């Protein structure tokens, strides 16, 4: 017997960052974070539970993945199998519409799409809040990709896995957009997982990062409620820089920046000084993301093209939460 689930999930970019776990096994974060879901980057995933399979099989963009990569998927699927009380193995096919491992949070869309597809295939029918606690166990940032718009990942309490989940904050339908400046889309050398662990262990700035991330979140949620774009942007830029500062304080120091990251940041500041509000944020990679008003995107793009190539500038609107994909819409 076979059971099929198919799901699309969009990636998200954190405006208040997650950078560290208080419980590594359960993926419980040190602080709550807040993100914007993006329309242009997503993952489509199919899960086929098949009684005839002896082990899980995992294809990414039609390429069969190694035992090591497949083992991570098996561990994740086991969370659902345990709950559903089944042992059936799965064939998983994922198609990434995100430059993989470029700091564009591909694991966020990957694990939220896999969670959505497995939820359907097993018939568990978990609600989105519960499903976000499952997505979290694949990759922390995946917690937030269950919903569209602005999404909080509430850190939860103690070691209670169920308490750390996503909360939809606002659909961001008030003239919000983002432009990615792709500085380098190659695979990063240091994973977020290792980078954040090293930062907690060695950076003397880490405790003040957690404190200010918490107060930044309160201020940002207030700015979103007021639809105050300038405050939203200012906190976004400040919070991202503080996360990178904790890494510079690590021993030995970590930096994901490249010379063109600095060039992009300077250019955005220059554009802002012409009177167009736009703010940068960066993740565990050299690419720069520009938070702006959707209605200013064309103007900003034209100015960025003075210094960057066409293919480096990727504008995107606000994305939606996860969606199941019907048979007729599965085009792979
Ligand atoms: C974020 N990042 O909030 C932060 C900001 C990168 C910088 O979440 O170990 O792939 O799988 O939980 O989610 C990237 O880290 O790490 C990330 P794991 P994840 O978006």
UniProtKB/TrEMBL annotation:
The keyword Lipid biosynthesis applies. Keywords: ATP-binding, Lipid biosynthesis, Lipid metabolism, Lyase, Nucleotide-binding. Residues 179-316 form the Mvd1 C-terminal domain. Residues 9-163 form the Diphosphomevalonate decarboxylase-like N-terminal domain. One of its GO terms (molecular function) is diphosphomevalonate decarboxylase activity. It is an enzyme of class 4 (lyase). NCBIfam families: mevDPdecarb. Belongs to the diphosphomevalonate decarboxylase family. This is diphosphomevalonate decarboxylase. It comes from Candidatus Vagococcus giribetii.
């Amino acid at each position: 017997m076979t059971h099929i689930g198919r799901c699309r999930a969009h990636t998200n970019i954190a405006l208040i960052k997650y950078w560290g776990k208080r419980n590594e096994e359960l993926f419980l974060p040190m602080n709550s974070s807040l993100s914007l879901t993006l329309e242009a980057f997503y993952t489509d995933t199919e899960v086929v539970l098949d009684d005839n399979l002896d082990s899980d099989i995992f294809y990414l963009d039609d390429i069969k993945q190694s035992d090591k990569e497949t083992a991570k998927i098996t561990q994740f699927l086991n969370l659902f199998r345990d709950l559903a009380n089944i042992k059936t193995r799965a064939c998983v096919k994922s198609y990434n519409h995100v430059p993989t491992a470029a700091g564009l949070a591909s694991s966020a869309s990957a694990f939220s799409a896999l969670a959505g597809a497995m939820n359907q295939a097993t018939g568990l029918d978990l609600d989105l809040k519960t499903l976000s606690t499952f997505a979290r166990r694949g990759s922390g940032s995946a917690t937030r990709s269950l919903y569209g718009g602005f999404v909080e990942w509430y850190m939860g309490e103690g070691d209670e896995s169920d308490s750390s989940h996503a909360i939809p904050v606002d659909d961001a339908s008030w003239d919000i957009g983002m432009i990615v400046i792709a500085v380098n889309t190659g695979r990063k050398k240091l994973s977020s997982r290792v980078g954040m662990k090293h930062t907690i262990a060695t950076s003397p700035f880490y405790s003040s990062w957690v404190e200010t991330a918490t107060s930044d979140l309160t201020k940002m949620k207030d700015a979103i409620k007021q639809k105050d774009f300038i405050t939203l942007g200012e906190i976004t830029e400040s919070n991202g820089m503080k996360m990178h500062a904790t890494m510079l304080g690590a021993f030995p120091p970590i930096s994901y920046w490249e010379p063109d990251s600095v060039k992009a940041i300077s250019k955005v500041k220059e554009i802002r000084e012409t009177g167009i509000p736009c703010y940068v944020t960066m993740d565990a990679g050299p690419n720069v993301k520009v938070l702006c008003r959707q209605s200013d995107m064309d103007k900003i793009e034209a100015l960025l093209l003075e210094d960057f190539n066409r293919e480096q500038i990727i504008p995107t609107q606000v994305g939606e939460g996860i969606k199941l994909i019907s048979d007729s819409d599965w085009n792979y």
